[in-house]
């Protein structure tokens, strides 16, 4: 009885301190475990190594460490040191517990509070594939209203990849990436022009390769994107993929709600990576929001099986958000290299080369770039409105052409035996053309 009175009057008991520290540790493990389980969240830690993120990751260890440090201090004649450490541990436990619960609530609740307005879009269900519209080309590459003739120099008409009036594409595809709805720095006018140009050219499919929004957990930003897409390209078959910005802080929920309804399915079973066999091309999407954080054994095995099974008579096109070979720059804040991707290249390029991938199209870097290495052509199309990246300080040795500072999209026409690539400005002018044989 005397001992108990002493304990309560002099401070916290050992038991209280240890239990509260364990509760804080468990809560921080649950919060971090949930965050880490979200598609692409781990990439944030690698590419933006903020001190705050490291603190979140390890904060649960603080109170329990102090509680353990307090144990041998119990043997000292003077108890002030033990009491001080116990109080530090206890206060730390409260702070860690509150922060963990608040962050968990932030990650779960924020993406779900704002209603997502339903949009009338022609979304491509990966399990259903794409139908070619078998557009009858009128002349050159002006089908659907993109006026090349007004903008092309005579040299451009002879450029590699230019279509002749006799060419009849088997399939016409458009690609762009990184529109960043919701970013103050994005160019909304250019983004609208890109969508108007794509609507006018009526491709068989438009692939939007991620970073649809600036901050993935904001329903407001997704609503902005959906209302523009509905207004500008309601009848263009559309297939977006997930970018690192879309994935921020629980944004996967809104991505799926906006672009991958419950009745959609894919050959992989995942909404984030899948393959589409169009009959005249095989299109494979890989899930690389920042880099290889989601490229585990399951996705790798699926990719290898899919590439191996692809019809060698048809072009094999891979799309992703983060790139492989690319020019770029060192992140000014963290020094991370935003060029020739140090994770994606060793993990996936050997598979591309082994299985005869013809063309790889990605976003993430806000440039338009054409590259080629070991028989594989790479295109960067992060030019749909996001703030253009700075002049590259690193030039990829495999770069063939780059446009810095502009916006636009890429058209790919599937022709017998070749792919015709046209990088376009936001107003539809052909900036660069190339041919990829298959
Ligand atoms: Fe981006």
From TrEMBL:
It comes from the Bacteria. The chain crosses the membrane at residues 12-35, 55-73, 85-110. PANTHER family: METALLOPHOSPHOESTERASE, CALCINEURIN SUPERFAMILY, SERINE_THREONINE-PROTEIN PHOSPHATASE CPPED1. Residues 175-367 form the Calcineurin-like phosphoesterase domain. Residues 144-164 are annotated as: Disordered. This is Metallophosphoesterase. The keyword Hydrolase does not apply. Keywords: Membrane, Transmembrane, Transmembrane helix. One of its GO terms (molecular function) is hydrolase activity. The lineage of its organism: Bacteria, Pseudomonadati, Spirochaetota, Spirochaetia, Spirochaetales. InterPro entries: Calcineurin-like_PHP, Metallo-depent_PP-like, STPP_CPPED1.
């Amino acid at each position: 009885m005397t001992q108990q009175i002493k304990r309560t009057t002099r401070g916290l008991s050992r038991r209280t301190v240890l239990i509260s520290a364990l509760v804080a540790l468990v809560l921080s493990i649950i919060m971090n475990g949930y965050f880490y389980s979200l598609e692409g969240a781990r990439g944030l830690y690698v590419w933006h190594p903020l001190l705050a993120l490291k603190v979140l990751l390890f904060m649960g260890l603080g109170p329990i460490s102090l509680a353990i440090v307090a144990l041998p201090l119990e043997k000292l004649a003077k108890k002030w040191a033990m009491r001080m450490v116990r109080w530090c541990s206890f206060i730390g436990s409260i702070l860690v517990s509150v922060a963990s619960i608040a962050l968990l609530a932030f990650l779960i609740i924020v993406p779900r509070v704002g209603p997502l307005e339903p949009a009338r879009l022609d979304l491509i269900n990966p399990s259903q594939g794409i139908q070619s519209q078998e557009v009858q080309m009128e002349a050159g590459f002006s089908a659907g209203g993109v006026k090349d003739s007004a903008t092309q120099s005579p040299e451009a008409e002879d450029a590699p990849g230019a279509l002749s009036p006799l060419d009849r594409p088997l399939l016409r595809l458009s690609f762009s990436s990184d529109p960043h709805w919701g970013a103050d720095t994005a160019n909304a006018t250019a983004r609208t022009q890109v969508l108007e140009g794509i609507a006018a050219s009526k491709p068989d499919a438009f692939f939007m390769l991620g970073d649809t929004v600036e901050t993935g957990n904001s329903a407001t930003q997704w609503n902005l994107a959906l209302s523009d897409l509905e207004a500008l390209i309601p009848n263009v078959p559309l297939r977006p993929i997930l970018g690192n910005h879309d994935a921020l802080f629980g944004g996967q929920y809104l991505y799926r709600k906006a672009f991958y309804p419950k009745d959609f399915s894919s050959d992989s079973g995942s909404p984030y990576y899948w393959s589409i066999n169009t009959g005249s091309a095989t299109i494979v999407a890989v899930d690389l929001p920042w880099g290889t954080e989601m490229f585990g054994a399951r996705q790798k095995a699926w990719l290898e099986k899919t590439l191996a099974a692809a019809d060698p008579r048809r072009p094999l096109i891979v799309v992703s958000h983060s790139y492989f070979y690319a020019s770029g720059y060192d992140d000014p804040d963290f020094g991370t290299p935003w060029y020739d991707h140090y994770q994606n290249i060793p993990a996936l390029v050997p598979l591309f080369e082994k299985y005869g991938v013809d063309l790889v199209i990605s976003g993430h870097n806000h440039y338009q770039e054409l590259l080629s290495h070991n028989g594989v052509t790479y295109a960067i199309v992060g030019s749909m409105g996001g703030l253009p990246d700075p002049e590259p300080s690193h030039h990829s040795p495999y770069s063939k052409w780059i446009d810095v500072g502009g916006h636009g999209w890429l058209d790919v026409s599937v022709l017998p035996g070749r792919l015709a690539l046209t990088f376009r400005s936001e107003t539809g002018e052909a900036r660069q053309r190339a041919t990829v044989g298959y």
